[in-house]
Amino acid sequence: MSVCWVFMILLGCRLSHASPSESLSPCNYQLKTMHVLAGHNVSLPCPKLKGELMNFRLFKDDEEINLNASTSVRELKHNGSTSFILSGVNASSRGIYRCEGRVTFPPPSLKNNLMILLLIEGHQCNYSETKTVEHQVVGLHWIWISVIVVLCIYSIVITVIALVNHIKLRHIDCQSDYINTKPRATKDRKKRGFPNPIPRHF
């Protein structure tokens, strides 16, 4: 049982000390949902930051998009705000996009994220948005919960087996003590009768 409690404590510390830039929980991000018709362009906004030097990166399903290699994604800056333009979206464009903004100067370095759930009309809008977010964003937490449940069951089974074996050993020891306390029979027993027979006189 101690192993189970140790893992539960470690999991609680991990979830409570996770920073907004590292945790995958949707509660730590600004989440927006956008519905777009297939073939249209869409603008994915980035978080608003203040600083002299800033850089922004775009991720799709937690994988960074290389702007130099992509012809359908470009960065747009206007009036101090930054966004990414997706051209000619289709069914494969559906997913969770995350714009990560970082202030590099002046210090200290700050980072913020903005998540967008992009659904394409006629392809993915009939699906449950909540189910999609939970499947892609918080799947890692369910893995941790499953591991903890398995460890708890394993600890309980081992404890029960140990108790049963302990009870059996105590029962065997009690029987051995009872057998050892019984008196032993003497090897040479005298026959019943008079030790010296009475002589008969005729």
Structural class: alpha+beta
User: What is the terminal-to-terminal distance?
Assistant: 93 Å
Series of H and E elements: HEEEEEEEEHH
Number of helices: 3
Runs in which pLDDT lies below 50 for 5 or more consecutive residues are: 16-28, 124-128
Helical content class: 25-40%
Strand tally: 8
How would a crystallographer describe the biggest sheet? 5 strands, mixed
Shape: elongated
Q: What does the radius of gyration come to?
A: 39 Å
> What's the mean pLDDT score?
76
Strand order in the sheet with the most strands: 1-8-7-3-4
- How much beta, percentage-wise? 25-35%
List keywords for this structure.
202 residues; alpha+beta; 5-stranded mixed sheet; 3-stranded antiparallel sheet; 3 helices; 28% strand; elongated
